[in-house]
Fold this sequence. Notes:
heterodimer; A: mainly beta; four-stranded antiparallel beta sheet; 13 strands; B: mainly beta; seven-stranded mixed beta sheet; globular
Amino acid sequence: AQKVTQAQTEISVVEKEDVTLDCVYETRDTTYYLFWYKQPPSGELVFLIRRNSFDEQNEISGRYSWNFQKSTSSFNFTITASQVVDSAVYFCALSEASGAGGTSYGKLTFGQGTILTVHP
Amino acid sequence: GAVVSQHPSRVICKSGTSVKIECRSLDFQATTMFWYRQFPKQSLMLMATSNEGSKATYEQGVEKDKFLINHASLTLSTLTVTSAHPEDSSFYICSASGVIADSLQETQYFGPGTRLLVL
């Protein structure tokens, strides 16, 4: 069975601080995908990143960066110089790879989410 | 722009009535759609996997006779909450799996969600 754990229920920071959201996962699959989503108060999920289990390179996108450590089954997310607009619930998710060559994926297993509040 | 739509976005109904929620993939065909439910301050939990032209696969603990899922076409799946009760009040989110335009990889796209309040 797959499991995603986001141990931090709530994080509160002051604007311009850096913040890291932790994500630890469990799976028996050899090929899988990891995701991060942002859910603002409107409720709509905003896709942030998808990472294949074979690609352990860290990734940076603007103020966002992700650290994938397969050895510790972690996929942490860092926001640099946080802004008030970053306030939201952030979900880490996991899915088994499927299809030819493992290029597709199916149902997502979500972590419990981390509520991030950035104060001005 | 949005690639998956849901209708309605918000619905309030009386206890005992049935509510239908539509999930549409826009500009792409989705052979598989997923229905998730999210209670306040909780995570998203998968309810069922819907494949076009076949019966949905429900997760353990989800009543298939209460949550009717129909995936009659490659662009539309519907979730009907039958005889809704206050405990069914939740945020229902669908996702559709497909390949858009020049994308080389099948990707899952989430709809904006439907807030159901049963009085």
